[in-house]
Amino acid sequence: MPVKTIEGQLNAKGIKVALVAARFNDFIVDRLISGAIDYLVRHGASEEDLTLVRLPGAFELPIAAQKLARSGNYDGVVVLGAVIRGATPHFDYVCSECAKGVAHATMETGVPMGFGLLTCDTLDQAIERAGSKGGNKGVEAASAMLETVRVLEQL
Fold this sequence. Notes:
By secondary structure, the protein is α/β, with parallel strands linked by helices. It has a single domain (about 30-125, about 135-145), classed as Lumazine/riboflavin synthase (Rossmann fold). The protein is about 45% helix and about 20% strand. It has a four-stranded parallel β-sheet with strand order 2-1-3-4, sandwiched between helices. The mean pLDDT is about 95.
């Protein structure tokens, strides 16, 4: 007897998505946003069903993601930002708190969130992950969110 398998189809038709993105390091984040939007539209989403919210930095992303998820207006949220390590421990705190905050928001609301926060040691690493040889992590975050939305519909 075969095992029953539940998987999400990568079809974005009819879903409403909020993209929450940091302005800090916007030359990188803008590439993540473009990748996520392009992915969703190519998979059937209507641009009218996509909402982009910009915030100062990564630390502010979780509260906006949580509020959007709580609104009941969105099937999923894609969180996008880029934090590049500097000479102080600030990097560690921002990255950790953003990750914890997004995880808490998705668990508290039950709304899937794609986590597209780059946490890089160098600018070159960020460039590689924003559409260069490392792919585009905005695309990957949108894809993960979409698949999770479609799986949860079946549970």
